[in-house]
Amino acid sequence: MRSLVHTDPAAESTSPEEMPTRIFTTGSGAADADAITATAARLATEIVRSIYYNLVANLEQPCTKLPTTGPPTILFDVFWTQQKRKRLIEVALAGIDLPPEDYPFYVTIGADGSLTPTRMAEILDMPLSTVVFRARRLERRGHVERIENPDDGRSFLLRLTPNGRRLLNKARPRFRRYAEGVEARLGSAKTKAVASGLVELRKAIDEELTPSGAEAPRSAPRRAG
After folding, report:
1. Confidence of residue 22 (pLDDT cuts 50, 70, 90)
2. Which residues contact 130 (CB under 8 A, 6 or more apart)?
3. Which of 39, 114, 128, 180 is the Cys-Cys partner for 159 at CB 3.0 to 4.6 Å?
């Protein structure tokens, strides 16, 4: 049995065809109503997803000039590439107790040895506060420890613990298999060209962010993942 219930307070002055309604189903028709509701929700989700990909994801394809702004800039290409990189790290580290977003910290400390938080911030091009916060997270896991800085008693050095080193030794070969596979697909010449182009892009961004007349910061050298 189906009942139509008015939900608009102004229903008395509205024609029946214009009245917003809710359908309440009871008895043997309840299962059918649930199925209809589930189907409608699924279709709505698919429509929203389709709209999103048409407006955003499909911009990866060559497109005509967008209204008032023009086509995506090179920085949007960088964003898309970063999403792919994040996915690659997630797949490479699947099953290993190392959060993908922290992998660069393990690699940096493992490759460069003991570092001050300030030096890590310079290498990773991150705010010092972010580096300190993330380093504490690694400390709580027992993968990083603080040691005395022989060159400056006011600061300290960060280094991997034996557990942290073992974890990196397990994770890094898996990531590098994927990373080197990507470079192999590009080929040596194109890989070098992309790397050189990224250096120039970082330099251009630094210059754009630097006030007129000031010297742009130097980018950290490329590090092996």
Report:
1. very low
2. 121
3. 114
Residue type at 84 in one-letter notation: K
**Beta-carbon neighbour count of residue 144 at 10 Å?**
22
**Using one digit for the tens of pLDDT, what is the confidence trace for 153-171?**
888 999 999 999 999 999 9
Count of beta carbons in the 10 Å neighbourhood of residue 105: 25
What is the rounded CA–CA span in Å between residue 82 and residue 88? 10
pLDDT-based confidence at residue 21 (cuts at 50, 70, 90) = very low
Q: Measured between alpha carbons, how far is 211 from 225 in angstroms, rounded to an integer?
A: 32
Domain assignment present for 224:
no
Q: Render the burial of 71-91: b for 16+ CB within 10 Å, e for the rest.
A: eeeeeeeeeeeeeeeeebbee
What domain range includes position 51?
Answer: 2-60
Phi then psi for 213, rounded to 5 degrees? 95, -20
Q: Tens of pLDDT along 32-57? A: 655 555 566 666 656 555 554 454 55
- How far apart are alpha carbons 3 and 11 in whole angstroms? 16
Indicate the residue type of 116.
T
In a domain, 146, yes or no: yes
Q: Nearest to residue 142, comparing CAs of 117, 107, 167, 109?
A: 167
Are 132 and 178 within one domain?
Answer: yes
